[in-house]
Amino acid sequence: MKNTITVDGISKKIRNRTILDNISLTMESGNIYGFVGHNGSGKTMLFRAISGLMSVDSGSIRYNDLEIRKDVPVIPSLGMTLENAGMYSDFTGFKNLKILAGIKGNIDDEQIRAAIKRVGLDPDDKRTFRKYSLGMKQRLALAQAFMESPDVLMLDEPTNALDAEGIEQIRNIILEEKQRGAIVLIASHNKEDIGLLTDYVYSISDGQVSPERKDKTDE
Question: What are the start-end ranges of the H helices in 90-133?
């Protein structure tokens, strides 16, 4: 069965500033959707709204037949990275993910270890999160997003702070997740990420979303 996210005319104001302005979108399983726009254009806010982490003033968001923040608080099967994702600074990467995995209890230690290895980290690394480089922190945040094989992935700047090898590795994982049947949303300033990975591209400006021709992002 295909999963579908339906965004119907959502708007949001914060301190009298329009953050999201009458946005409507439909997204389906097995596709990667790219969102491009300058800082402050509304990309992160859109992800927060679609996921259920933020309320909207008008309009609705549905995941299949469930209305987000009415029938369910958030998208039920969701993996997400946002800026400044919270991790415990004094715990190892493995312990951080074990705590997060314990919320749903869907995966065991070996699956957590596999998720950490998949993004190029060592699950037995005894360093605490505070001693990780920026690239390592990014990889761990992505491992957290991927580890439970969610139906929906929302990735904000997924290749940020990664070296060339890491970028290629994460791009391959994102494509694997698409093949698995996930709905993947990517917000990125990296035109190469958008050009190589996405099936559909949307431009966000002043809280409004408009479709872009895919070949424009490849220039």
Answer: 93-104, 109-118
Residue 9 has which token pair?
Answer: 């005319």
User: How confident is the model over 162-207, as pLDDT tens digits?
Assistant: 999 999 999 999 999 999 999 999 999 899 999 999 999 999 998 9
Contact assessment for residue 170 and residue 115, using Cβ atoms and an 8 Å cutoff: no
Q: Cβ distance 158 to 186 under 8 Å?
A: yes
Work out the number of other CB atoms within 10 angstroms of the CB of residue 110. 9
How long is the chain? 219
Token couple for 50: 């679609």
Domains of the chain by start residue, with CATH: 1-77+151-219 (3.40.50.300), 86-149 (no CATH)
pTM summary value: 0.94
